[in-house]
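Hi P.,

Sorry for the delay on this. The queue was packed all week, but I finally got your sequence through. Input first:
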Amino acid sequence: MSLLRFGALYLLNPSTKKSKRLPDSGVKRGWHPQDAYGFGFDESNDDYKVVLILYDRGGGFSADSNVMVYTLRTDSWRKIGGLSCGIPFGVLGKFLNGSIHWVVCDKSGSSCSYVIVSIDLEKEAYGEVLPPTYGDGFFNLELYVLKGSLGVLCRCRENYTDVWIIKEYGKIDPWTKLFTLQEVAEPRFGQFSTTVCTSNNGELLILYRLRFSIYSPKNGTFRNPIFHNVDPWPCLQMCTYVESLVSPNADNLVQRQHQ
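Then the structure:
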């Protein structure tokens, strides 16, 4: 299943074309640009969950957050402890290994320090991972999940983007740089939106300058495939999903619970 936002939040199973509008979270406010959300499967409880991070932003860059968790089994929301370390970059969190991840900017002084924050869906507890050492000239991070590993795109002002991935979890510095994407024009915010998927020969399907491109790390070249009836602009929060017959209305979960 996947999560969609059209004013309200919806669960959608693209395989069965069934959907469900989630109930109101109980927090009376409109959508803010800093609000973030994520969706994943809690394997220990055999339950699908949605995490919603709502911000009440005051002056400066600081903000207080309300974090709500929706469970498909109960079809209800509950509030957990707020996120205190900063504001996520990127609305949709990346789900991996039972946790949802966001890049968070903590601007306590004149500069902004980045950290990757996760919420464990089983324990509903927070965790942190320091980003790779990306050097000078960096100005933005983009999270992605590739072949079961967490990675980041580090966009730099000097016309290139470094691609990093975590290969060995648990190490003090778990990051490995895979390659560098060389750009042909002045970079701008949002130029590399996301890494969608990778092929068996190592090529990556990415959103590049608001269009789909296939990048070959072997020779450093791009090619632009033709997609019919696809507008890449709404896909800036694109994510992959695993096919299943699970109903967004929790019918399958209730049946398994009584077996």
